[in-house]
Amino acid sequence: MSAIEVRGLCPIKGEITVQGSKNAVLPMMAGAVLNNGITVINNVPRIQDVFCMMGILDSLGCSCVLDGHSLTIDAAGLSRFSIPKAEMEKMRSSIMLLGALLGRCKEAEVYYPGGCMIGKRPIDLHLMALEKMGARIREGQGDEPLRASVPRLRGTVVDFPFPSVGATENAIFAAVAASGKTVLNGCAKEPEIVELCRFMNNMGASVRGVGGDVLVIEGGLPLHDSEFTVGGDRIAGGTYLLAAAGAGGEILLTGTGSQGLKTVTSVLKQMGAAVFEEEELIYLKAAGRLSAASIKTGPYPGFPTDLQSVMMAVMSRARGISTIEEKIFESRFKTANELQKLGAEIVIEEDIAKIQGRPLLKGCEVNAWDLRGGAALVAAGLMAEGTTIIQSCEYIMRGYEDICRDLSGMGACIRYME
């Protein structure tokens, strides 16, 4: 399957239970290597990034079995600390294994991560945190790997100048394995970080301050076998809410906490959609064109950068001029070129996009350049007259278990093409 076909202007109405969270389960899989035993994770989405991480863990000597949506990781056989370059380049989440391997093996050998083409991915904050705990880092030149080693990780105080999700995750892993107390200041507060902390505590770690920007970790405690259930994917849920809002539909979303999507639902209300929220339920109804709005992406609880592209698609049909200020990834606007092929009027000026809404978009052939940009093009296809073909849909499969199944179940005319 290399493309998705969408026939637009079909009513979207129905109920959907969101898949397990991609951005929560991947760091949990990395954290599982800290336990010299078995970890079971439930509600795991069957997506390409999960399969890729399973392959990496298998290459390190672990055993991974995904039965339905239950993943069993046996890390007792972990025998290697070096990840091949080809595996690292498949997704950026692979960098989370740096702190976990350093904690388990006292050594790690990795390459710079890959994944979607959404901008630079500096890992300076990751390395700063690990070095503060005693790690010696040697960055490779050219095709050489980055090597980290440490006789013994030790607790310390780490001050993050920016709430980086990945750096926070790597620091948590290293701090759990370190001797003594570690205080992490300026941590990311995303719901996925909260889940990771609970996951580690369920394994026997001691992480306090969960949900805040200061985490206190008592390191060196013995870890044990555990079982944990991942929450719903707020980004997938947000994608479906935005798609329904843009196409003019009615949707009942369950399986993910509404708190993690407060910024998104707040903007949708401003744009004219009717939204009702409970703790684990969101109802949305949108009739006709929405009104323009302005957003700025930012760390949680700001507007999630992962939903910026999908929001841009929705704004392409809104009444008036909308603006988006992208403060996280400088190349998130790459999808704008594809939306313009559908008739969207978008002007990019550095990190700000101005979108003049159009009454109607026209279906055509477009290309997905990244995971969330691909989802945005699917949403745009639902709003467009005629047929839209999204090429390179393998990007979409990295994060959505089955976007065609989910949307067609609510009345959308969408299918995979061979």
UniProtKB/TrEMBL annotation:
Positions that bind phosphoenolpyruvate: K22, N23
Predominant location: cytoplasm
Listed GO biological process terms: cell division; cell wall organization; peptidoglycan biosynthetic process; regulation of cell shape; UDP-N-acetylgalactosamine biosynthetic process
Transmembrane segments: none
Record: active site: C116 (proton donor)
Pathway the protein contributes to: Cell wall biogenesis; peptidoglycan biosynthesis
EC number(s) per entry: 2.5.1.7
Uppermost EC category: transferase
UniProt keyword list: Cell cycle, Cell division, Cell shape, Cell wall biogenesis/degradation, Cytoplasm, Peptidoglycan synthesis, Pyruvate, Transferase
Molecular function terms, GO-annotated: UDP-N-acetylglucosamine 1-carboxyvinyltransferase activity
Cellular component GO terms held in the UniProt record: cytoplasm
Coiled-coil regions listed in the entry: none
Compartment(s) where it occurs, according to its Swiss-Prot or TrEMBL record: Cytoplasm
Role: Cell wall formation. Adds enolpyruvyl to UDP-N-acetylglucosamine.
Family per similarity comment: Belongs to the EPSP synthase family. MurA subfamily.
NCBIfam families in the cross-refs: murA (TIGR01072), PRK09369.1 (NF006873)
Protein name listed in UniProt: UDP-N-acetylglucosamine 1-carboxyvinyltransferase
Species the sequence originates in: Clostridium symbiosum (strain WAL-14163)
